[in-house]
């Protein structure tokens, strides 16, 4: 299976995506020929040029719009901090859908592009308290954004990519001026698109993830985390407009065959990857009874795991470090729980990538009754099976026998 992995160490935008695809081997004339079938209200040209960022060469995509009343093209430079307008009408979702329906694009390309714009409209509608049908897509309905989005979908189709993956997204900070006025970075529409997506904020005072880039990657990528196992065939770099001091303003695209799929076609093929948040706090002045209660509450509010570590703090005080592993979308409520339920005055958190075994539950018969056991798969092979503690405990209490006796028989009776 051919996959594309977007390494978003400097964020992502529509033109960076388009540039990375051309840098990875999509012929520019494939894009211009397909995009010419869009019945846009102004002529445009799409060109690509090489750009060097921190010594790394990438490809920059440039859309020039040629208004009907002038021979002078208007070049759009909107990557990382420049929201834009093409001096054309502000389109609604239905207008963009009609453009796609009236084009000569392949049905699969049209449908995928529609999903991207639909996701954009849904996010903008929520931010502006209106409906998808009525929301004005100011920032993302310009000809340049339409070219970026539709062109990116065309490029992935040309490369015959079966699945898209991406790294966690790096965000900037500060403010940017949009059609609705001065907005915090990331802008509200972008933040809405990033719900449930692993993100990490940088100290770069620029817009790193644009609404167009966020809509593309959150619609197309089926998983965010470390790079999947793959045989790397080609690499492309899409260059942004700005030169960042802190890091190269590039989007890296890796194309290749997902190697683990060659091992087995079952659903248990290889280790899974994902990203989680880690929350920690130290307490040295709280009753252990409260600690036990807080641990229970953390699990009840979405923690994946909670563990306590004995530590020594200042002045030789014995203390407890509370560590919580959780999905990103549960982090805020768990932080609030720690701040309100414990004596701590602050917590720290970070994100981490995980590799975990694919798992499946199987039924195991014992002489005292059936229990569940959890199987862990790596490369399609079961490498460990663990009887479920709660099931073993239930039978032990029910029959008044040692729990280890049930555990041992369960291991011996594994299918």
User: Which ranges are low-confidence, i.e. pLDDT below 50, for 5 or more consecutive residues?
Assistant: 76-87, 261-269
Strand percentage lies at 25-35%
- The radius of gyration computed from the alpha-carbon positions, rounded to a whole number of angstroms, is 26 Å
Question: Can you write the helix and strand succession as a string?
Answer: EHHEEEHHHEEEEHEHEEEEHEEHEEEEHH
Give the proportion of residues in helices.
Answer: 25-40%
Number of DSSP-assigned strands: 19
Number of helices: 11
Give me the secondary-structure category.
alpha+beta
Described by strand count, sense and barrel closure, the largest sheet is: 5 strands, mixed
Q: Give the strand order of the largest sheet, numbering strands 1, 2, ... along the chain.
A: 10-5-1-12-11
Could you tell me how far the N terminus lies from the C terminus, measured between alpha carbons in angstroms?
32 Å
Overall mean confidence score, pLDDT: 88
- Tally of structural domains: 3
Q: Any idea what the shape is?
A: globular
Give the arrangement of secondary structure elements:
Elements: E1 2-7, H1 14-23, H2 28-35, E2 43-53, E3 56-66, E4 74-75, H3 93-101, H4 107-127, H5 143-158, E5 163-166, E6 169-171, E7 175-178, E8 181-184, H6 188-193, E9 199-201, H7 211-220, E10 221-224, E11 231-239, E12 250-257, E13 272-283, H8 288-300, E14 305-312, E15 318-326, H9 331-341, E16 348-356, E17 358-366, E18 369-378, E19 381-387, H10 389-399, H11 403-412
Parallel strand pairs: 1-5, 5-10, 6-9
Antiparallel strand pairs: 1-12, 2-3, 3-4, 7-8, 11-12, 13-15, 13-16, 14-15, 17-18, 18-19
Helix pairs in contact: 1-5, 1-7, 2-5, 3-4, 4-5, 4-7, 8-9, 10-11
